[in-house]
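Budget justification aside, the reviewers requested a transparent look at the raw inputs and outputs of the sequence design task funded under Objective 1. We therefore reproduce one unedited record. The lines immediately below are the structure tokens for a 401-residue chain.
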């Protein structure tokens, strides 16, 4: 019978390892479990797993969601952590993610907890993920926590996809419109300008403005692109400062129509994140810290940090939320009811479900509103250019007549 090298922990947390003779890997695991050892890894001697040389590629939230869902099923089936990570790592197509999973597997095999192994890779597994896994390990409900995590990530991915799909159409139309206007001013208008100059026509003001814009684009197109690039650079740099981030994020929330959508997204994310953390056994102060860092908007983040400080002083969550202008009254009331009845996580998840549906409806309404506005804008711009070019022709025709 083959020899199996094993590693594990006792119920008291002491790390142990050794060599065991068994008919199969499953038999070795069963034997170790009968000895009250929590198995972290079992490998047939002489067939130790070597880490491949990998690299390249980013990690999407969708990949994290799929991994988490598969991981929870494997843990629920009773497979050891190391074996789960080995199987999931081997089947990953994303080389960067594969390398991370193999490194986490190696850390766990050497006696590290799963949460500590995940914390070494914050770009793939953020503080929310690692803290929930730590709570699951401490409570012996890792499979349940992973299921909650997979549901949470799937809902966040769905929310982002809904917003992205709603913005693709207007952005594409605006870019195409800008391109059409650019080509007209760059290539078409100079032909008309040469014609009018040859005929000696007196040009009305709209025509002179259009021709001046065409001349400017033809001569200083590089300056336009440079100005746009510098504007994006300085706005991005200003957004990274404390005051700039709060000013720009505050303007986003105050924008007509779009601001309302962004506020609903922020509320949905806050409730979903906090509800998931609280239901997983993460302490409320830690949960608020993590929720603030994943808010996505500095104004919302400040409101959550203020809430966390108030809770630390012994106040309820609903009190500071009420004083902020970010969270609607309905959210504050439902959170207050959840605190009073001891069902805060249930209430937060219900609010998140409601506001995720609201985001879907708001993005659809935004798209319906933007469509006629874009058509009107395009009609005014392109129609204005065409009319400005025909005005001198009408003047010339009247003179010939």
């Amino acid at each position: 019978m083959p020899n199996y090298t094993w590693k594990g922990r006792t119920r008291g947390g002491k790390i142990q390892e050794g060599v065991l003779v068994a008919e199969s890997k499953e038999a070795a695991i069963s034997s170790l479990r009968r000895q009250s050892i929590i198995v972290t890894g079992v490998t047939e001697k002489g067939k130790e797993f070597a880490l491949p040389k990998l690299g390249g590629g980013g990690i999407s939230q969708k990949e994290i969601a799929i991994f988490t869902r598969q991981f929870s099923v494997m843990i629920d089936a009773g497979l050891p952590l190391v074996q789960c990570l080995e199987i999931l790592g081997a089947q990953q197509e994303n080389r960067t993610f594969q390398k991370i999973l193999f490194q986490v597997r190696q850390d766990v095999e050497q006696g590290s907890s799963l949460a500590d192994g995940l914390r070494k890779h914050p770009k793939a597994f953020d503080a929310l993920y690692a803290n929930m896994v730590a709570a699951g390990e401490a409570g012996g409900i890792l499979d349940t926590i992973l299921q909650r995590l997979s549901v949470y990530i799937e809902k966040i991915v769905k929310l982002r996809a809904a917003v992205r799909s709603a913005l693709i159409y207007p952005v594409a139309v605006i870019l195409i419109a800008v391109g059409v206007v650019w080509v007209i001013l760059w290539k078409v208008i100079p032909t008309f300008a040469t014609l009018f100059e040859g005929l000696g026509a007196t040009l009305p003001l709209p025509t002179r403005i259009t021709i001046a814009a065409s001349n400017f684009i033809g001569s200083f197109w590089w300056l336009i692109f440079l100005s746009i690039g510098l504007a994006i650079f300085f706005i991005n740099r200003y957004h990274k400062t404390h005051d700039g981030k709060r000013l720009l994020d505050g303007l986003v929330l105050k924008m007509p129509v779009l601001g309302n959508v962004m506020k609903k997204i922020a509320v949905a994310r806050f409730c979903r994140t906090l509800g998931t953390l609280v239901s997983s056994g993460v302490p409320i102060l830690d949960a608020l810290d993590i929720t603030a860092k994943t808010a996505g908007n500095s104004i919302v983040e400040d409101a959550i940090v203020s809430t966390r400080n108030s809770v630390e002083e012994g106040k309820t969550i609903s009190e500071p939320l009420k004083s902020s202008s970010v969270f609607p009254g309905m959210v504050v009331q439902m959170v207050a009811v959840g605190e009073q009845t001891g069902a805060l996580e249930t209430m937060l998840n219900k609010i998140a479900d409601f506001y995720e549906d609201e985001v879907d409806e708001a993005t659809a309404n935004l798209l319906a509103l933007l469509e006629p506005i874009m058509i009107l804008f395009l009609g005014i711009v392109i129609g204005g250019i065409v009319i400005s070019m025909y005005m001198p022709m009408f003047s010339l025709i009247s003179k010939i007549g």
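DSSP finds 15 helices and three strands in the chain. Confidence is low (pLDDT under 50) at residues 47-57. Computational costs for records of this kind are itemized in the attached budget.
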